[in-house]
Write a structure and sequence with these properties.
Order of helices and strands: HHHHHHHHHHHHHHH
Radius of gyration: 27 Å
Helix content: 55-70%
Number of helices: 15
Number of strands: 0
Strand content: under 5%
């Protein structure tokens, strides 16, 4: 019986930590990852550094070029809620597209050539026109004077390769066509540097993105611990002493597992997007009594813990401050270690 008693205590404790962790993950996915587009920002910085490495002297224009490419309609879909609930278009223009978080080497090369081959448009920013003129001048010094013709030859070669090798993937055909075009003509040095550094740059982009997500996760975790005054030792003491609470928590944990609420997302997936959008619409983007980060956190998974009174939101500043009169060592450990 003693073993079962402490087993129930540990199940209740693990259930509480899991619920809070899922709430933190959901908030990180919905706010900094989606609203801030951390992946797109990391990719923009990485490709900007790559362009400067490949074409020294392009420092003042590299970011403009990469930004223009990553917002291309072929890479980046139009903005969708909840972003458009907060950011409204100005002067009748649509909300700018998000920076794409993924681009293949072959796509980047073709879009770069397309950027250079285009004529300046009247509604383009002057910075974009200046960047186009600068990179065309730099590549002209490498004997690449006609990007439009080079792009046409690459597209034609890709089509011919599809006829010859229909079992090849599109990336294989594009890679072969691009390398053949550059290695046999102008821009050989440019392409050699780009090929040599692109894959490693993307690896570093992924590492930088992961690091930033961890920082945001730590910030949200610390914020929840501070606001909820989550004391792990006190929580385990409550679960150990209160048999009614312990039974309710274990029953909720078993029910959640049977419903698959804690099943991991598919490979490459994240939290339920439909749920994130619905919670954001209700608790972040619309006025009313249900508006607020506390209600949003409850909607994204913390409600189960608050319903069982394992954690509770302070009603006012005085109630929150009174919880901090006795600062416990366990709470300090929670602040330092919860997000890791």
């Amino acid at each position: 019986m003693i073993v079962l008693h402490y087993l129930d205590v540990m199940i209740g404790f693990a259930f509480t930590m899991l619920v809070i962790s899922l709430a933190v993950t959901a908030m990180v996915q919905a706010l900094p990852v989606y609203m801030r587009n951390l992946k797109g920002e990391a990719l923009e910085r990485g490709l900007t550094d790559l362009m400067v490495r490949v074409l020294p002297g392009l420092e003042s224009h590299a970011k403009v070029i990469v930004d223009h490419i990553l917002r291309d309609p072929l890479l980046s879909p139009p903005r969708s809620p909840p972003y458009t609930w907060f950011v409204k278009p100005q002067d009748g223009k649509e909300v700018p597209r998000a920076l794409s978080g993924v681009v293949q080497r072959e796509e980047f090369v073709r879009l770069l050539l397309d950027f250079m081959a285009q004529d300046d448009k009247p509604d383009e920013l002057q910075a974009v026109k200046d960047a186009r003129a600068e990179i065309k001048a730099m590549l002209a010094m490498l004997d690449l004077t006609d990007p439009k013709d080079l792009l046409l030859r690459i597209r034609t070669r890709i089509a011919n390769l599809e006829l010859q090798y229909p079992d090849w993937s599109s990336s294989q055909r594009a890679s072969k066509a691009i390398l053949e075009a550059f290695m046999a003509g102008p821009g050989k040095d440019f392409m050699a540097k780009l090929v040599g550094w692109f894959d490693q740059t993307i690896d570093r982009v992924d590492a930088a993105y992961t690091a930033r997500v961890r920082i945001w996760t730590a910030m949200f975790s610390i914020a929840l611990v501070v606001v909820l005054h989550l004391d792990t030792f006190a929580l385990m003491a409550r679960l150990n002493a209160d048999s009614a609470l312990r039974d309710k928590v274990v029953a909720s944990a078993v029910s959640a597992m049977e419903k698959g609420q804690f099943a991991p997302p598919p490979a490459g997936g994240s939290v339920n997007e439909a749920q994130a959008l619905a919670c954001a619409r209700t608790h972040l983007a619309s006025p009313g009594a249900a508006r607020g980060l506390d209600a949003y956190a409850d909607c994204m998974g913390l409600a189960e813990a608050t319903k069982l009174e394992l954690v509770s939101w302070p009603h006012d500043l005085d109630a929150w401050a009174s919880r901090w009169q006795k600062f416990s060592f366990a709470l300090l450990l929670q602040l330092l270690g919860m997000s890791f």
